[in-house]
């Protein structure tokens, strides 16, 4: 049941896209002095060794972080994201890639708080070792969807929830939508960011249509693909659904995604888009 290990896929194009959006969201929260809360429902291991046998099996990082690592001139937001990667590679060589918790931890201020949920026993053990003695980080060995019910709402009014499941179960999208509705009901002022794969585009569009019918308002969609979507057995791209997106996020994404596509697209394949699924 719990077979997915992100170490096989760390640093790929979908990670770069997801973590760039995540960086934009965290940067928006830093604009105000009041502390914020971050919940990661499917946290993974925290960081990944790109020199490991797991990562080198398919070398998926070559579709994402590797080419960006070598670029000297990049948009400011991309530079900010790359700072979180460089923080784990102080010698200037790309060896480690941060998972979402480590990306966000790079930007936390002393009063901000991070809570991480992970169900896989090996991953949660590694996650605990990664953040041992870190008083700003609390880790729960817990199903991510249960975490939305158990840990929301937080005392903080401001914050961000990242929902990034493995999509290895047949009813994953149904469970995700049910949990998202419950999480939003509990904390309607929070930002919710939901990652989903683009393999079978019909399944992805069905998920988005069902999300539109939930009654949740103010939903922005961003998608990024480096391959055309005619092969359902590979990860052509991915999407991020953002509920309660911060001001100017749409504008920032419309500026950044064409640049990212130019760097990572394979032979001109793929595409990007930013649009409102549900307006206010």
TrEMBL record:
Site feature: Interaction with substrate rRNA: 4
A single BP term in Gene Ontology: rRNA base methylation
InterPro entries linked: RlmJ, SAM-dependent_MTases_sf
EC number per UniProt: 2.1.1.266
Pfam (any one): RsmJ
Catalytic residues in the record: 164
A GO CC annotation given for this chain: cytosol
Positions of S-adenosyl-L-methionine binding: 19, 42, 100, 118, 143-144, 164
Job of this protein: Specifically methylates the adenine in position 2030 of 23S rRNA.
Stated family: Belongs to the RlmJ family.
Complex and partners: Monomer.
Protein name: Ribosomal RNA large subunit methyltransferase J
Lineage: Bacteria, Pseudomonadati, Pseudomonadota, Gammaproteobacteria, Methylococcales
Gene that this sequence comes from: rlmJ
């Amino acid at each position: 049941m719990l077979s997915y290990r992100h170490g096989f896929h760390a640093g790929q194009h979908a990670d770069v896209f997801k973590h760039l959006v995540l960086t934009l969201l965290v940067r928006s929260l830093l604009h105000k002095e009041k502390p914020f809360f971050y919940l990661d429902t499917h946290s993974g291991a925290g960081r990944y060794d790109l020199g490991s046998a797991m990562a080198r099996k398919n070398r998926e990082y070559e579709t994402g972080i590797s080419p960006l690592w070598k670029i000297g001139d990049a948009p400011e937001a991309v530079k900010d994201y790359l700072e979180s990667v460089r923080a784990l590679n102080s010698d200037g060589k790309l060896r480690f890639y941060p998972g979402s918790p480590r990306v966000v931890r790079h930007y936390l201020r002393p009063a901000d708080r991070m809570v991480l949920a992970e169900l896989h026993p090996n991953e949660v053990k590694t996650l605990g070792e990664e953040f041992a003695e870190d008083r700003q980080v609390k880790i729960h060995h817990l199903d991510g969807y249960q975490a939305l019910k158990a840990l929301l709402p937080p005392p903080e009014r401001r914050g961000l929830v990242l929902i990034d499941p493995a999509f290895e179960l047949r009813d994953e999208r149904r469970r995700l939508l049910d949990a998202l509705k419950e999480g939003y009901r509990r904390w309607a002022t929070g930002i919710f960011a939901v990652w989903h794969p683009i393999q079978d585009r019909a399944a992805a569009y069905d998920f988005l249509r069902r999300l539109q019918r939930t009654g949740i308002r103010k939903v922005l969609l961003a998608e990024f693909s480096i391959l055309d979507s005619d092969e359902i057995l590979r990860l052509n791209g991915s999407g991020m659904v953002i509920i309660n997106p911060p001001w100017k996020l749409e504008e920032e994404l419309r500026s950044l995604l064409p640049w990212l596509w130019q760097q990572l697209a394979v032979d001109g394949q793929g595409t990007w888009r930013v649009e409102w699924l549900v307006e206010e």
